[in-house]
């Protein structure tokens, strides 16, 4: 089986350390305060007060973690002996952490052995079970492929989210639709085109091409399938492997969508072996031509990165649009 090679020709997502361990769980060196991306200080002490109130147990120690480009993260040692992961935000959007918690719980219903448990959530914080990272075993990637097939098959009640809450760093909509084409146009391509135009993150020609594509998705003969239960942001940094070689998925933008979307996201930045995709296809066979449709599904994350980071991401978006024109 052949696979579409990373459209961006990049090996790592920007603004993150190079390794998975450094990306999410590396221990930082500053102990009281952490600086958010915009320079606003977020208090670890304030987070401790919130966690102690929510869990009704003391926090014996806290250590900030490096990584993430949105929230400030901590490893907390509780007075009852447990270790937990917690994150906070100095000015979260309404329902910011509640949306993530709901997404994790929804995914966990389908694959409980792969999603960390939500222990507490509030307006400005989220607490999850801790995962001790290790190294993948010989079957770890194949296990992930099978787990992802199970997750997708568990389905969703609609394309989008029933609660219609936004997801992602750019707050993309998740209105409900009966078809993938309607949802991908209204929830991803058109909002990103508008955002790209408003911020200057995308050239006018790219904006027009995204808008034009949104109006002809039905012509592309994307296989008609029921909505799959998607992680929604499945790059390698959002997949952890524990000390037993088990897979864990974190930081979702969970919604109902086409299952090829998660696979395309996995291929965008690399980090997953062909063993993973083969195991997926063996358990849940993919429709013919799915590799050629990868650029179509990568358009949304590429446009987000072009708007957010600039650089070569708009050129990658244009290359994906060129590839879609050949479908």
Task: Give structural notes.
It is built from 10 helices and 11 strands. Helix 7 crosses helix 9. The strands form 4 sheets. A 5-stranded antiparallel β-sheet has the order 3-4-5-7-6, with helices on both faces. Strands 1-2 form a two-stranded antiparallel sheet. It has a two-stranded antiparallel sheet with strand order 8-11. The N terminus is likely disordered. It starts with 19 loop residues before the first helix and ends with a helix. It has 2 domains: 104 residues, Phosphorylase Kinase, domain 1 (2-Layer Sandwich), CATH 3.30.200; 186 residues, Aminoglycoside 3'-phosphotransferase, Chain: A, domain 2. By secondary structure, it is of the alpha+beta class.
Strands side by side in the biggest sheet: 3-4-5-7-6
Distance between the termini: 19 Å
CATH topology of the largest domain: Aminoglycoside 3'-phosphotransferase, Chain: A, domain 2
The multimeric state of the shown protein is: single chain
Gyration radius from CA atoms, angstroms: 20 Å
How many helices? 10
What's the CATH architecture of the largest domain? Alpha-Beta Complex
């Amino acid at each position: 089986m052949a696979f579409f090679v990373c459209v961006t020709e990049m090996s790592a997502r920007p603004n993150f350390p190079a390794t998975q361990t450094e990306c999410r769980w590396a221990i930082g060196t500053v102990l009281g305060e952490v600086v958010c991306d915009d320079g606003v200080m977020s208090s670890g002490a304030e987070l401790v007060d919130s966690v102690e109130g929510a869990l009704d147990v003391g926090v014996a120690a806290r250590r900030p973690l490096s990584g993430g480009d949105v929230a400030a993260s901590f490893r907390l040692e509780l007075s009852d002996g447990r270790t937990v992961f917690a994150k906070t935000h100095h000015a979260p959007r309404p329902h910011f952490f509640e949306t993530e918690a709901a997404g994790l719980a929804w995914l966990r219903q389908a694959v409980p052995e792969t999603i960390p448990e939500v222990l507490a959530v509030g307006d400005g914080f989220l607490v999850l079970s801790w995962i001790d990272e290790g190294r993948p075993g010989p079957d770890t990637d194949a296990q992930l492929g099978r787990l992802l097939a199970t997750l997708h098959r568990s389905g969703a009640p609609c394309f989008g989210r029933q609660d219609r809450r936004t997801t992602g760093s750019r707050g993309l909509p998740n209105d409900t639709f009966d078809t993938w084409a309607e949802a991908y146009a209204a929830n991803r391509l058109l909002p990103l085109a508008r955002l790209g135009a408003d911020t200057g993150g995308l050239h006018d020609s790219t904006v027009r091409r995204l808008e034009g594509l949104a109006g002809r998705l039905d012509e592309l003969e994307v296989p008609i399938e029921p909505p799959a239960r998607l992680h929604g942001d499945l790059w390698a940094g959002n997949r952890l492997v524990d000390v037993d070689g088990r897979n864990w998925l974190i930081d979702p933008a969970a919604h109902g969508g086409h299952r090829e979307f998660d696979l395309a996201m996995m291929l965008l930045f690399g980090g997953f072996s062909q063993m993973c995709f083969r195991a997926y296809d063996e358990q849940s066979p993919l429709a013919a031509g799915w590799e050629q449709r990868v650029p179509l599904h990568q358009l949304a994350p590429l446009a987000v990165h072009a708007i957010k980071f600039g650089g070569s991401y708009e050129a990658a978006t244009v290359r994906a649009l060129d590839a879609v024109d050949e479908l």
